[in-house]
Amino acid sequence: MRYVQLRAFHNVAIHGGFSRAAEALFLTQPAVSDQVRKLEEEYDVLLFNRNKKQVTLTHAGQQLLEVTRRMFDVEQQALDLLSESRALRAGKLRIVADAAHHLLHILAAFRRAYPTVQVSIDAGNTETVITSLHAYEADIGVLGEIPQVGDFDVLKLNSTPIVAFASRDYPLAAGESVTFAELANHPLVMRERGSKTRQKLEAMAEQCGVTLTPLIEAEGREAVREIVAAGGGVGFVSSAEFGQDNRLVPIRIDAPEMLMDEALICLRERSNGKLVHAFYEIARKLTQGGAEGKIS
């Protein structure tokens, strides 16, 4: 087994094909195909299912990809360590967030400090964030809870209660608060089941003896917001995420407070990466009253 063979395999796997892998490696397609073939023949294993339209990983290929993701990520960390100034001058930071607005002030400060670093932000629920970090598809995540697992470094950003919200002309908008029993009689607009906001809301409603059944399930916070703004019913969000929208009115839920803890998280093994470390340092300086923790 040689480095060039693993590199060829890894790039075919992450790029989804031999042609795109060859482009990424600045090689010819036959050269990449030959390296993968030699790797398969040497260990008598099939790593890819090949057909004319697409290339997919076999079970063995999926297992090997988990190893090569770690291998090449560590290689990148070594490169960053040896070329710190370049990493902070021309690197790329990948963030996946359940709500990007929690990061706006941090991003602004980071951009001022490192104006040439590329930053990408993808949206996702808790499950997506955790999966992306474990798969090395993201460097930093933003979650609406403190994860109860031992392989993350955590920096708490804030803690705010869940509120209901409705369009300004919706009947409930005239009141200051609403009970779970009252909410159960209205059309409810909720996020997908992976949403921690929804999980906490439903758990508290159940404790209060009420079952909340959504009339509409929508993928993502913005979709819920637009449906509610159009008069589609009542939505739910943490007060920090409600933001400024003249179409909508927040409504306090008359029940024990349900708090959402927004936090930055990264894999502990990657916390010393130059870009991750720089972003965390800026976040620490800007976070007031938050508490950093290492979950063990």
From TrEMBL:
Q: Show the Pfam families listed in the entry.
A: HTH_1, LysR_substrate
Taxonomically, which superkingdom?
Answer: Bacteria
Listed GO molecular functions? DNA-binding transcription factor activity; transcription cis-regulatory region binding
Keywords attached to this Swiss-Prot or TrEMBL record, sorted alphabetically, are: DNA-binding, Transcription, Transcription regulation
State the InterPro entries in the record.
LysR_HTH_N, LysR_subst-bd, Tscrpt_reg_LysR, WH-like_DNA-bd_sf, WH_DNA-bd_sf
Concerning Gene3D superfamilies, the annotation shows: 3.40.190.290, Winged helix-like DNA-binding domain superfamily/Winged helix DNA-binding domain (1.10.10.10)
* Domain called HTH lysR-type: residue spans: 1-58
Q: Does the keyword Transcription regulation apply?
A: yes
Tell me which family the UniProt entry assigns to this protein. Belongs to the LysR transcriptional regulatory family.
Task: State what protein this is by name.
Answer: LysR family transcriptional regulator
